Amino acid sequence: MRGIKAYRRAAAVSSDPMDLVVALYDGFLRYCYTAKRGIGEGSPAQAGPALSKAMEIVNELHISLDPNQDEAFTERLSSIYVYVNQQLLQANLHRDVARIDEVIRLMTELREAWAEAAIKLRSGEASAEPGGEAAAEPVEAVASAG
After folding, report:
1. Where does the pLDDT of residue 127 fall: very low under 50, low under 70, confident under 90, or very high at 90 and above?
2. 125 in helix, strand or coil?
3. CB 21 within 8 A of CB 113
4. Cβ 135 vs Cβ 128: under 8 Å
């Protein structure tokens, strides 16, 4: 088990930043599905910790925003992250699967945009510069989200 954890840590350190963002979104979605399952099975012991982990991931995404890159984009994304955490808190308090479904939909759109941008950037099809095609993918998703 130690070897797996060490491998994951090394992979995270050497990963492309956009791939790390996608990995955070993947983790967020996994925890949300675990929470939904826990609520459906009447297991607060499963749902509560999963929602807490999902909120921690959103907090990590939130604090990693760099307003120097694109202020309007980061402000909009910041608002989405605050909204997502509010929804998760309410979902936890009221065992409300509909709120979890809503944030899953929203965060899935963003995850797909980041993944597409990472692919374009790796293939050299687009620039990562603000305003470049790869940078536009998540910006467009944020503009249409919420």
Report:
1. low
2. coil
3. no
4. yes
User: Does the reported pTM lie above 0.85?
Assistant: no
Of the candidates 103, 120, 107, 113, the residue with the CA atom closest to the CA atom of residue 140:
113
Task: Kindly list the structural domains of the chain, giving each domain's residue range(s) and its CATH number in brackets, ordered by start.
Answer: 17-144 (1.20.120.340)
- Per the prediction, the chain carries an average pLDDT of 85
* Residue 143 or residue 130, greater confidence: 143
Q: Is 112 exposed, middle or buried (0-12, 13-18, 19+ CB in 10 A)?
A: middle
46 near 34, Cβ under 8 Å?
yes
Q: Of 74, 73, 78, which is closest to residue 59 (Cα–Cα)?
A: 78
Which tokens hold the place of 87? 């929804």
